[in-house]
Amino acid sequence: MTEIRGVITAMVTPFAEDTALDLPAARSLARRLVDEGSHGLVLSGTTGESPTLSDDEKLRLLEAVLDEVGDRATVIAGTGSNDTRHSAELTAAAARAGAHAALVVTPYYNKPNRAGIVAHYAAVAEAAGELPIVIYNIPSRCVINIAPDLLAELAAEIPTVVAVKQANNDDLGPIEGLDVLAGNDEVFARTLELGGAGGILVAAHVICRRMRELYEAAIAGDAGRASAIDAELRPVYEAMTVTSNPIPVKTALELLGVIGSTMRLPMVPASVAEREVVQTALERAGLLVTGGVGPA
Question: Distance between CA atoms of 220 and 180, rounded to whole angstroms?
């Protein structure tokens, strides 16, 4: 089964100025992220503006990125929704397209109870066959939280549920039967310290090499070095949360000349103040100098 660990970048979805899906830019960005140290990529997640992508766009994006970097990195397809039938169909389609794993978010808005959550993931896993499933626990967006004991139950009952992207910092800790992945950049180092497998990260778009160094230090047992790198990177983590994701990271990528910052509504461009926060963080990290891009 696919190994899901390390620095996994939650990749933004590039759009042309008219908001059409920009597959050449997606290929280029995927290649850049892997070249800079990403062990894997998540496509069509929150950072990828998944609510505004059609299923056809999600699958075309997946196929393009698999073709570009699928032999060098773990490519994980975001396939979850609050409609179990839709989630199952899209996850099965991603499996047929060659995805290495699927990221399946907790059903949002309709607020299923415990039995409904178990039934949801069981149905998605059955449709996906042997495809590894990563549960995405993000109560800040989904309203409900999958408690650690329920996560362990899902792992015990569904063999292909192998990991969790834990975006609830209050419940961060080992889960029996699951690899734990940091769901928020600021707890990446803490997750590794607790024995976690890695993280699905946003700031890796711009500081991937340093986050890879943090990961390598942590798994080598050099807690002091990992902690020092984490402290150094925190201003960038904070800048990536100055407003709703993915506005800050797309702004950063535009400032660095990587891709344009076009988003689909309801995401809107960064305000002047928000843009200044991002630019200042990049400058202080040595990634951007006045009038141009700094060292890679």
Answer: 18
